[in-house]
């Protein structure tokens, strides 16, 4: 499942939402692949629903777009975020269904259209890689999914110091 976070598509704010951008990566020796993964961590930072690739923000600076990630062309969506975006799509559809007028419903659909294209692109890429079912099974709302690595790390008793109150 950890491969899902390495499948990146352009976000809703990009000129072509949903375009695969983590393509063309040739197989590499394990050590080199790990070094590149670590380097990706220095060139991106997690954000709600995806990853920010704007280096100023990654380096700890303020976001000039006031964290409006969904409309930023530096924002990418990952395979690990698919369910988040599907829930967003359901939200927008629900809002449009309850709109007081057809014009308002059409406007809501129009506003969400770039995001819908990005989601469709992400789904298409994941299906093409045979990862769609894995992405749909990844429910990050459950803490055990998010913290799985932390919770499954074992420490030998001899390396843990425990202080007791007298």
What this model shows, in words?
With 166 residues, the chain is of the alpha+beta class. The chain has one domain. It is 45% helix and 8% strand. Strands 1-4-3-2 form a four-stranded antiparallel beta sheet. Strand 2 and strand 3 form a beta hairpin. It is globular, with a radius of gyration of 19 Å. It starts with 7 loop residues before the first strand and ends in a 15-residue tail after the last helix.
List keywords for this structure.
7 helices; alpha+beta; 166 residues; globular
Question: What distance lies between the first and last C-alpha atoms, to the nearest angstrom?
Answer: 46 Å
The average pLDDT is 77
Helix-strand category = alpha+beta
What low-confidence regions span 5 or more consecutive residues with pLDDT below 50?
Answer: 142-162
Number of domains: 1
Largest sheet: 4 strands, antiparallel
Query: Which overall shape is indicated by the principal axes computed on the Cα atoms?
Result: globular
What's the total count of β strands?
4
Query: Helix and strand string, N-terminal first?
Result: EHEEHEHHHHH
Radius of gyration: 19 Å
The residue fraction in helices comes out at: 40-55%
What's the arrangement of strands in the largest beta sheet? 1-4-3-2
Give the DSSP E fraction (strand runs of 2 or more residues): 5-15%
């Amino acid at each position: 499942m950890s491969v899902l976070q390495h499948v990146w598509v352009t976000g809703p704010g990009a000129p072509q939402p949903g375009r695969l951008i983590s393509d063309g990566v040739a197989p590499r020796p394990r050590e080199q692949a790990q070094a590149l993964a670590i380097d990706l961590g220095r060139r991106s930072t997690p954000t709600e629903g995806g990853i920010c690739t704007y280096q100023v923000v990654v380096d700890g600076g303020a976001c000039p777009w006031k964290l409006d990630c969904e409309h930023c062309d530096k924002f990418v969506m990952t395979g690990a975020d698919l369910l988040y975006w599907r829930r967003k799509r359901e939200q927008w559809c629900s809002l449009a269904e309850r709109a007081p007028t057809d014009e308002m419903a059409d406007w809501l659909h129009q506003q969400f259209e770039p995001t819908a294209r990005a989601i469709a692109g992400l789904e298409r890429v994941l299906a093409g890689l045979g990862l769609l079912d894995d992405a749909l099974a990844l429910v990050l709302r459950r803490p055990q999914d998010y913290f799985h690595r932390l919770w499954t790390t074992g420490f030998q008793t001899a390396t843990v110091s425990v202080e007791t109150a007298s």
